[in-house]
Design a protein that fits this description.
The chain has 222 residues and is α/β, with parallel strands linked by helices. Helices cover 49% and strands 18% of the residues. It folds into two domains: 119 residues, no CATH class; 97 residues, OB fold (Dihydrolipoamide Acetyltransferase, E2P) (Beta Barrel). The chain contains seven helices and six strands, in the order ααααααββββββα. It has a five-stranded mixed barrel with strand order 1-2-3-6-5. β1 and β2 form a beta hairpin. 23% of the residues are buried.
């Protein structure tokens, strides 16, 4: 029973690691001045990979204590534990559970939140063309206003922006921006990415955004 519990916990760790790898900023390296090692530390989910290894080792010791455990070699047991955890993690990943657990950990586990915040500091480099925050106002079809991670307010030019992850402007949407600083509180966005994962609160389809902009213009005209 303890062996299977260890595999289950390893599967959870594997699922969250897969989630973070899937949505890591792999294209970010060309935009930052950090070294390759710092970039690897930024995108690789070492926290969950270490947990996966620990649960696998624990499962190994539990299995060796069973009646038949002595018949199998250590490498075979450990590799089997890793494979079972990765397969289980794949099933859990497909359910969307890792994204929810990631949010729970960030909201409730202090040291995990602090560790994630250190990774997020790279998005506080506006002079290097990196910015992130929450949309607070849709000014027009060409501009939005956001509150940055440092709680400072920015007006973002989105006239020629590429929206990744099927996003479009909506209030309360958390985003990451690649572009260039235009001046104090002014930023031109080349690309906008979802802050995290496959879904973001407040996501809106482009057609709905255009309809709302047309409605706003009609109201201004009248």
């Amino acid at each position: 029973m303890v062996f299977f519990l260890s595999i289950l916990l390893g599967s959870v760790s594997s699922a969250i690691a897969l989630f973070q790898l899937r949505y890591a900023e792999w294209d970010l390296y060309q935009h930052i001045s950090h070294s390759l090692i710092e970039f690897i530390l930024l995108v690789i989910p070492f926290f969950w990979l270490i947990f996966l290894l620990e649960f696998t080792v624990f499962a190994y010791y539990c299995f060796r204590r069973t009646e038949q455990g002595y018949r199998y070699g250590a490498i075979r047991i450990i590799l089997s534990g890793i494979v079972l955890s990765i397969v289980g993690g794949g099933f859990l990943y497909a359910t969307g559970l890792p994204e929810r657990m990631e949010t729970v950990f960030q909201d409730n586990v202090l040291f995990y939140r602090q560790w994630q915040e250190r990774k997020q500091r790279v998005w506080m480099s506006s002079r290097q063309g990196l910015l992130a925050g929450k949309i607070t106002e849709i000014i027009s079809a060409q501009k939005i206003r956001i509150k940055g991670l440092k709680r400072n307010v920015w007006v973002i030019d989105i006239g020629d922006t590429i929206w990744r992850g099927q996003l479009s402007p909506d209030e309360d949407l958390k985003i990451k921006i690649l572009g260039q600083m235009k001046g104090k509180g002014q930023f031109i966005a080349n690309e906008i990415w979802p802050w995290q994962g496959r879904k973001s609160p407040g996501r809106m389809h482009h057609s709905r955004f255009r309809e709302r902009m047309k409605k706003n213009r009609r109201n201004v005209t009248h």
